[in-house]
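User: I need a structural model of 3-oxoacyl-[acyl-carrier protein] reductase from Pelosinus propionicus DSM 13327 for a docking pre-check later this week. Nothing fancy, just the predicted structure tokens so I can convert them on my end. Input:
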Amino acid sequence: MLQESILKGKIALVTGAGQGIGREIALTLAQSGCKVGINDSNRQSATNVAQEIIAAGGSSIVLVHDVSVASEVQIMYQAIVQEFGQIDIVVNNAGIILKNAFCEITEEQWDRIIAVNLKSVFLSCQTAASYMREQRSGKIVNISSVAGKKGGGFLGNTAYGTSKAGVIALTKGVARELGPFGVNVNAITPGFIETDMVKSMTNELRATILGGMALKRPGKPRDIANAVLYLVSPLADFISGEIMDVDGGLMMD
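Assistant: Understood. Predicted structure tokens for 3-oxoacyl-[acyl-carrier protein] reductase:
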């Protein structure tokens, strides 16, 4: 882990931070000196994470807003800026998974996964840009998935993969447009990470996935959090538009 003070005084927002990867990202940023806004649709989960940060001597605020709705995203950003004065780091992590076969997906299911996994990232990046362009600095990290490169596969299905592929393209485009304003925009594509999302996998499927990985073991939420920490730190000031695989050697592309 980077030194504790490397992000001291920075203001961070993490969406979908109530559990799993998002929770670990929020705690890691707080441990590194950030004041952290905890967004989640579940108030109790968000509150638990915020209280954990505060109990450790950090600063946090709970932000229960639907990140797929523009007005809610704007209110969320206004709240964190009002509380802490600015916004330096945004991690767009909120997401859902859908495992239905392509021919079985309903229009409502399609719209929902695109709204939560892709539209929310668009809305958050656009709102963050309104603050970061003015201050001419900022770091944005979008959490995609190897499914966005594989078109689904063992993590989710076609709809899930499509939503995460959209995050990859969005990241590159936003990086180009915000670069002249001193804003770095990158994405991480997690592979097989031990979270609630993969607990329903059969032993056979787990063995198949692990067999295709160089490291032959699943990752942990902390592996993704550490990658985020690097990308939002001064060590990555010359990195933008990067799609970073954190997948134990699965993709190697």
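Before docking, keep this in mind: The chain has one domain: 11-246.
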